[in-house]
Design brief:
By secondary structure, this protein is an alpha+beta fold. 20% of the residues lie in helices and 26% in strands. It folds into five domains: 128 residues, no CATH class; 205 residues, Dna-directed Rna Polymerase Ii 140kd Polypeptide, Chain: B, Domain 6 (Beta Barrel); 119 residues, OB fold (Dihydrolipoamide Acetyltransferase, E2P) (Beta Barrel), CATH 2.40.50.150; 47 residues, DCoH-like; 52 residues, DCoH-like. A six-stranded mixed beta barrel has the order 12-26-13-24-23-30. The longest helix is centred in the C-terminal third of the chain and has 16 residues. It is extended, with a radius of gyration of 34 Å.
Amino acid sequence: MASSEVYINGKFVGSVDAPDEFVKQIVRERRKGVISHNVNVKYDDRTNEIHLECGKGRVRRPVIVVKEGKPLVTEKHIKQLQKHEISWNDLIEQGIIEYLDAAEEENALVAFTEKDLTPEHTHLEIMPLAMLGLTASYVPYANYNQSTRLNAGAKNQKQALGFYIANYQIRMDMDVNVMHTPQIPIVQSITHEISHYDKHPAGQNVVVAIMSWDGYNMEDAIVLNKGSIERGLGRSTYFRPALAEEIRYPGGLVDNISIPDKDVKGYKSERDYRLLEDDGIIFPEAEVKEGDVIIGKVSPPRFLSSVDEYSLASNTRRESSIGVKHGEQGVVDFVLITENEEGSKLVEVRIRETRVPEIGDKFTSRHGQKGVVGLIVPEADMPFSASGIRPDIIFSPHGIPSRMTIAHLLELICGKTGALAGRYIDGTAFESEPEDKIRQELLSLGFQDNGTETMYNGITGEKYAARIFVGNMYYLKLKHMVANKIHSRARGPIQLLTRQPTEGRAKEGGLRLGEMEKDTFVAHGASLLLKERFDSDKTIVPVCENCGSIAVHNEIKKQNYCPMCGDTVEVNNIEISYAFKLMLDEFKSLGVFPRLVLEDKY
């Protein structure tokens, strides 16, 4: 057999004749502690290569070592751990637990539970939950979900609003939200306890009914109860800081935070500065809207063309105040005056805005079942159960069959049981409370064990023909809110180069109509709309009739001039896109001479 090549972190270092024995020896020495525990080894029999990895940034996970079908962790070890006589590191030092990376796992056979062990197995899971990351292990009954949904559920929890940090009131974080009344879930996993989830919860327990409601929860949308919102469901505060500093420029010039004088270049109106106090800074609890100045500031002129301007600097100072950004509003929450690293004055002002759930805000359960609010219904019109319970959220049944998120349904039943019994329910993946026991408990509490209830139409009072699946579950409000995304514009700022509208909501940009959007309007025959849409950079240029190049119009002398033919030729104004004019200029820079051949316009 040909000798096997050995690579360390992808670099060839030599070859060995007995690859299997070599790999076994590396593992033996690592378990003894002779080689670092950070080394992982893999033998690829198809390419006949041995790869050793000890670099940074690898994802590794701990598993129990198994010998001859028996795990090395014994009852004695567990008792010692409970008495704190030994620690986790001791188990690693003794080679009882080792970390595998994705490559070494290829050569291992890991048993799920102790009863699955056979003599072929090399390792045993500490507990099956350990294969999941932090957020994925928060999902209750995760092993009843399809893998892609579990992925989505783990991702969604990272975007949920909650109590992100206890000292948020003295922090100046960019773009953060704080939920007003966060709760801890009724259906939990052991990770909630380990990670002290009760100290930073990020959701609320709500009553959910699974049914259609006049089509307003089609395509994953949800219907919200207006009464629930008024009682505080999903209410949060949005914080955003504004910052100004007195920058020092070369030549001894410096910014000045104050109310700008009227002779300053770019002075706004007196109304814009009305909220500033004598020091040029706004006062706390001031209500501000788009365009209001928060911190008044004047700066030296931008371009100092000659030495003379140094003496005139006081007269030609420009306005550079910080105002409320386009599309934003709120209340001044906190004003901080301090210094930056250079010792210059630094002012930070935090603005807050209460966010009440509205149509278009995004909510999700912990199972990747995300949806936006499609309608907010008055409480009187919401369906109600025989016991008078009105759901907070109506969830569409069409999201279940194709997604196969059975845990979403299980959580509804468990949440209902936990709420009625007044206890938390353990939904840890692979080791959760069994469904049949929960159902039995729900039955003993006087409800149907399948989670359905007779419901009545809130508008007509009629009984629904079908029984409705209803229960309690943990819902999260995500940071994607309409208030942060709504955007429209008529006229506004344009780019310097192309003279087309700027891009993006923050820059008050336009909404681009691309090639594909154009095709849809062509298909509709909406020619006038297209004509209107495609003149965002309309420009009028003088063109020489003789040579077809772009001419020059002298406004002062009221005459036209062609750079190629002189000033005796006929020049006509034509309407083109500025981007096209730019392209002609770029052709010229390549030595290509483009001609515009003009025809009479009938």
